Amino acid sequence: MPDRLQRPQPPTPAPSGGGGDGPRSPEVNKPNTEELLKRMRRVDPDQAKRYRQRTGQ
Questions:
Q1: For 1-57, what is each residue's pLDDT tens digit?
Q2: By CB atoms within 10 Å of each CB, which of 6, 32, 40, 44 scores lowest?
Q3: Are residues 40 and 48 in contact, defined by beta-carbon separation less than 8 angstroms?
């Protein structure tokens, strides 16, 4: 059985923004989750509860 070929690993990019030449995440304002939860409670309280449990909010 032939030995496994070792290839050089590319450097790991920085988690936020990078600073390299690679693609960047768009600078978008995060939605107001409080307003979203209020609307969800009005529409379906059980779904709002599941959303809070899933997202930790």
A1: 778 888 888 777 656 555 568 888 889 888 788 888 888 888 888 887 888 888 886
A2: 6
A3: yes
Vertex 12, ends 8 and 13: CA angle to 5°? 140
Q: Which residue from 6, 57, 14 is spatially nearest to 32, judged by alpha carbons? A: 57
CA-angle at 49, arms to 25 and 46, nearest 5°: 125
Q: Whole-prediction pTM value? A: 0.34
Helices 33-43, 45-55: inter-axial angle, 10-degree rounding: 140
| Residue 41 DSSP label | H
C-alpha distances in angstroms, 7 versus 10, 22, 29? 9, 21, 40
